Amino acid sequence: MDLWLVRHGETPALSMGVLQGHSAIGLSPTGRRQAQALAERLHRVGVPFDGLWASDLRRAVETAEILRQRNPLLP
Questions:
Q1: How far apart are CA 25 and CA 8, in angstroms?
Q2: Contact 67, 38 (CB under 8 A)
Q3: Is 74 helix (H, G, I), strand (E, B) or coil?
Q4: How far is Cα 29 from Cα 44, in angstroms, rounded to an integer?
Q5: Separation of alpha carbons 25 and 50, rounded Å
Q6: For residue 1, what pLDDT band results from cuts at 50, 70 and 90?
Q7: 31, 59 in Cβ contact below 8 A?
Q8: pLDDT tens for residues 6-63?
Q9: CB of 25 closer than 8 Å to CB of 11
Q10: Closest among 67, 56, 57, 70 to 23, alpha carbons compared
């Protein structure tokens, strides 16, 4: 089994050096591009996913959704 750990993309607060803790902050445009670039790379190299889990933080959920859209889970 391979386990991939992925950190969420950049947030507006992070780009300003502000720690956000458990704040409900979403991704910045740069963060969405980062997640999309990772999704494309994983798709291109053919990494299969049996499952995808994320914390309930908005930025983590957004990152996971972007990854899932480009890399559907295996049946």
A1: 11
A2: yes
A3: coil
A4: 22
A5: 28
A6: confident
A7: yes
A8: 999 998 877 677 777 777 889 999 999 999 999 999 999 988 888 899 999 999 999 9
A9: yes
A10: 57
Token couple for 9: 């993309």
Q: At what angle do helices 58-70 and 29-45 cross, to 10 degrees?
A: 40
39-43 LR contacts (CB < 8 Å, sep 24+): 39/66, 39/67, 39/69, 39/70, 39/71, 40/70, 42/67, 42/70, 42/71, 43/70, 43/71
- Quickly list DSSP for 28-68: -HHHHHHHHHHHHHHHHHT---S-----SSHHHHHHHHHHH
Claim: this prediction has a pTM higher than 0.70: yes
According to DSSP, residue 73 is labeled P
